[in-house]
């Protein structure tokens, strides 16, 4: 069965062709990589605290450079230990060069069902959106490993339901949160403001906050893309599953004319 990464050792991984980047297929698309780092953090946390697990509530990724399609290693550390709140960090490196960092807040869960709710806008049912193939100048295997249903509202505004068809790793259970986090970077390609054949607009980061556990296979992104007048942009999304909204994500963009 195809998957995004081969595990080479306890800390080393190798990408498959399904990780090929949208800007350059010789570089890794960071969407699956972000999901992998979230998974590694969750697995490390579960090993350290099997009797008192905390929920992965917020992730902040900083993309320090391109990640070639080659093996890499991931290290983790606890930045702020705690009984009910922890801040943990993961770093992806290639050849001794750090290329991506994750800082994740892990929070204690409790029963707050009686006050649960959100004012974030709900996604339309998936059946109301058309099927979509990412053929608007996007390259690589990663974006073609995902099923999309899509509605375009004009430049820089779209709604998409997406479902990755490739698991992160062979023979390893992936949590719903890590699986969802591994799809969030696709938001920057679904609400096209200017064709990627004319302007490059890679993101230098991704921050997401989740206020409940995702349910089901499909992930909803209600996305807006903004370009400023001086080479900086912003992609923002409301994240949903088929039960409704469950969080938000934000990506800072650097705009480069081709």
UniProtKB/TrEMBL annotation:
Disordered, as annotated region: 238-258
Pfam families tied to this protein: 4HBT_3, 4HBT_3C
Residue span(s) of domain Acyl-CoA thioesterase-like N-terminal HotDog: 22-106
InterPro entries assigned: ACOT8-like_C, Acyl-CoA_hotdog, HotDog_dom_sf, TesB_ACOT8-like_N
Domain Acyl-CoA thioesterase-like C-terminal: 136-254
Entry-linked SUPFAM superfamilies: Thioesterase/thiol ester dehydrase-isomerase (SSF54637)
Top-level taxon of origin: Bacteria
Polar residues bias (residue ranges): 246-258
Protein name, per record: Thioesterase family protein
Organism: Microbacterium bandirmense
Lineage, top ranks: Bacteria, Bacillati, Actinomycetota, Actinomycetes, Micrococcales
């Amino acid at each position: 069965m195809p998957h995004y990464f081969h595990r080479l050792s306890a800390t080393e991984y190798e990408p498959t062709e399904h990780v090929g980047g949208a800007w350059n297929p010789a570089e890794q698309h960071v969407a699956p990589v972000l999901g992998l780092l979230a998974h590694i953090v969750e697995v490390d946390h579960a090993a350290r605290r099997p009797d008192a697990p905390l929920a992965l509530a917020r992730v902040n990724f900083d993309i320090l450079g391109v990640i070639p399609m080659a093996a890499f290693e991931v290290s983790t550390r606890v930045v702020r230990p705690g009984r009910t709140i922890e801040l943990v960090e993961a770093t992806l490196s290639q050849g001794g060069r750090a290329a991506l960092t994750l800082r994740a807040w892990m929070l204690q869960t409790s029963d707050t069902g009686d006050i649960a709710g959100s004012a974030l806008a709900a996604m339309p049912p998936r059946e109301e959106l058309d099927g979509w193939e990412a053929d608007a100048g996007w390259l690589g295997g990663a974006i073609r490993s995902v099923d999309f249903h899509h509605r375009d509202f004009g430049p820089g505004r779209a709604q998409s339901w997406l479902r990755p068809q490739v698991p992160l790793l062979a023979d390893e259970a992936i949590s719903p949160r890590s699986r969802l986090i591994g799809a969030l970077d696709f938001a920057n390609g679904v609400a096209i403001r200017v064709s990627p054949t004319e302007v490059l607009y890679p993101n230098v980061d991704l921050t997401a906050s989740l206020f409940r556990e995702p349910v089901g296979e499909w992930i909803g992104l209600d996305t807006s893309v903004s370009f400023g007048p001086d080479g900086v942009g912003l992609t923002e999304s409301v994240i949903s599953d088929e039960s409704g909204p469950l969080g938000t994500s934000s990506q800072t963009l650097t705009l480069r004319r081709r």
